[in-house]
């Protein structure tokens, strides 16, 4: 990592491990939602346990990296930006865990005709978040390459918006057999699944500014 040439291998490895853990958490969230939709209760329960451990590990790594950057006065020009970026990336796995827990606690009744739409939503929303990770990694190696990798984050975020809006239209315009309270409940889950991509977009915007500043 060229930008981090003043940092020990230990902190470099921690940043890489942090991204690995968040990436794993994103995948577990995707598996968890699909297991819920498929009524695979045991696998879904395993997903809850796994994402809980991953989220806790990501928090420990984030706090350790932040502490090291400040106490050892590393990257004074970029330290605040790096910490802010890692904080927003950490928000992604926090939200993934929270959303999976909400599926477990509230157990929304998703009609069979909407199963594929919810599955598609989680796939696309997760792809936005997944696309952020390699862009964040490359910043520390070649900031000029960040822009080329970030376009996927924004593309998938827009697609997730479209799918979520389509689910909402189906709920409120094409699903007379579903009572209003259930429609509102399902709208909530569509919104929060979509928010994974929104989190990725926020981090991507921060990363875009960081790459521009790095080239100045």
Structure commentary:
This protein has 216 residues and is mainly alpha-helical. It has one domain: Phosphate transport system protein phou homolog 2, domain 2 (Methane Monooxygenase Hydroxylase, Chain G, domain 1), CATH 1.20.58. It is built from six helices and no strands. Helix 4 packs antiparallel against helix 5 (146-173) and helix 5 packs antiparallel against helix 6 (180-215).
> What is the residue-mean pLDDT, rounded to a whole number?
89
Q: Tally the helices.
A: 6
Q: How much of the residues is beta strand, in percent?
A: under 5%
Task: Please state the overall shape, judged from the principal axes of the Cα atoms.
Answer: globular
CATH architectural designation: Up-down Bundle
Q: Total domains, how many?
A: 1
The helix content is over 70%
Comma- or semicolon-separated keywords:
single chain, 216 residues, mainly alpha, Methane Monooxygenase Hydroxylase, Chain G, domain 1, 83% helix
Q: Strands, helices and their partners?
A:
Blueprint: H1 9-37, H2 41-71, H3 79-106, H4 112-139, H5 146-173, H6 180-215
Helix pairs in contact: 1-2, 1-3, 1-4, 2-3, 3-6, 4-5, 4-6, 5-6
């Amino acid at each position: 990592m060229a930008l981090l040439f003043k940092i020990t291998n230990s902190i470099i490895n921690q940043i890489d491990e942090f991204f690995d853990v968040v990436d794993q958490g994103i995948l577990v969230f995707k598996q968890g939602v699909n297991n819920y939709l498929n009524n695979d209760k045991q696998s879904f329960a395993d997903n809850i346990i796994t994402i809980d451990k991953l989220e806790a590990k990501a928090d420990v790594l984030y706090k350790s990296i932040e502490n090291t950057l400040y106490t050892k006065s590393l990257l004074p020009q970029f330290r605040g930006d790096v910490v802010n970026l890692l904080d927003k990336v950490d928000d992604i796995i926090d939200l993934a865990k929270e959303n999976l827990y909400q599926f477990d606690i509230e157990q929304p009744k998703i009609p069979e005709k909407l199963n594929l739409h919810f599955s598609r939503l989680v796939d696309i929303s997760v792809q936005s978040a997944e696309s952020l990770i390699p862009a964040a990694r490359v910043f520390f190696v070649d900031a000029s390459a960040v822009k080329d990798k970030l376009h996927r984050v924004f593309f998938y975020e827009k697609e997730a918006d479209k799918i979520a809006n389509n689910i909402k239209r189906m709920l409120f315009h094409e699903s007379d057999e579903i009572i209003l309270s259930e429609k509102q409940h399902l709208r909530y889950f569509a919104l929060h699944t979509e928010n994974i991509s929104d989190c990725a977009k926020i981090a991507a915007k921060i990363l875009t500014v960081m790459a521009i500043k790095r080239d100045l």
